[in-house]
Specification:
With about 525 residues, this protein is an all-alpha fold. It has helices spanning about 1-40, 45-60, 60-80, 80-100, 100-120, 120-140, 145-170, 175-190, 195-205, 215-230, 235-245, 250-265, 270-285, 290-345, 350-395, 395-400, 400-415, 425-440, 440-455, 455-465, 470-480, 485-490, 495-510, 520-525. It contains 24 helices and no strands.
Amino acid sequence: MNRFLTIILCSLALLSCTGGRKTAVETLRAAQADVEEFGFIPDADEGRLEAAADWFERHSPAKDRIAAWSLLAGVQEQEDALHKAVISYEKALRAAREARDDAARGRTGRRLAHVYNASREYVPAARELYSAWEAYRRAASNETDSLAAAALRAEERATLLEYGQAWYNLEDLAQAEKVYQAVLSEAHEASDTLTEVGALRSYAALLLQKDPPDPASAVELLSRVADDLHHPLSSADQGVLSWSYSLLGQAAEAQMRLRRAFAQAETASDRSQARFRAYQIAAHEGRSADALKALEKVVEAGNDADNTAMRDAVSLAREDYLESQGALAAERLRSSRLGIWALLFLLIAVASTALWYLRARREEIRRLREEAEETIATAEELRQRLAESSRVLKGTVAGKNEILERLCEQYYIYGESSDKLPSRLLKEVKNAISGLRDDPGTLESFEKAVNTAHDGAVDKLRAQLPRCKDEDVKLFVLAASGLSRTAMATILEKEKGVVNNRLWRLKGRIADAQAPDKDLLLACLEG
């Protein structure tokens, strides 16, 4: 009798596994066909694709898991569920490592870096891009087919360019410049026009951020894009040219390029960049009213983007909770059906096997319930943080001086040179900055705002890293308040390079410390 029951159970398990494989393979093939035909997955059924990926994770080799998780991550990225996409890409990357597939590691790591960039997490983006570049380099070196190797080399150069852009986002201009120069050399030698154009554009923008800026070289690089490589200039390129010509004293050419930047702007980001160039040019030419008007629009757009990102985070957390609740209900229903079969098998099978199975199902339900409760708690915490952060920032110096953030940049560049910065603006900025430097109550209000918005981060820094000097605490407070490197350098009367070095050293001390809340403290410095 026991042998007969064993045969029945094994047959049922085999049938279930066969049916699951058929469904998973069909779902995966349909998604791959959509990608090949349309370039994306239209009307994607994320639930089916996620179920297929889960099936492949349990039953298939690493190669199949790479494709399943990558497709699912693409759907999630397409739907702006970036936190889900990160998890799926990580699983695909793990499968690629297991399969020792360097080409897949490069593709997956690069796409994961794009998701991190979209989330404004530039440090992990840079890390993933470097790993992807190394993977592409290994894959190209091991590839015997010349055409395939050339394609991998092109991907390697494009990834290296994005790695340089990551350093630019991190405001390490020296490192970014080295990477851009390497990409330009390799792309020109390989006649890789697309990558060369991207490197020239990025390098031109970087040259205007250097101290001092190099507008003549920026114009020369973009001239190579338009004249030598015959590639049309974008709205951002026109903005770079407008600011370059303004610095060169060619006001008419600067205004013409600025009009083109606005005319070619297609996205909100393009329009925001064009407004910022308008602010720079107006401030440089001494038109203070136009400068402030343009700057206010830039700040409004930035605040809208930040608030939208926070609201999206709350919304996504709530969606996760609802999905978890649905999964919990489905799991209970499936468990009840399995319970009926278990009762039938209890009549003819060993009672211990059925009891073990029920215990496993109860444990699964408990785990899902805990995950659902944790998700709703996260959603509620995000909602509270959004409300509290909005209230605190509106009442603090940081919230009141959004426009000052950009004006500090002008003050930092031109200092006391009243012929470059209008005297009325110069006086206003000097008064505000003097208050930030000398008024003890101002730093205290910053500390209170940071403690409220970041779970008592300043108090925890003092308590858990008692060797931190007052200057380090002040630097931490300014950075956690969201001020730029330029604003901090202006307030602290230091060069930006000095501020960057002090921030890196402070991050290093926090990372090396045994502080229980060091993840929170490091997160405050990543803003």
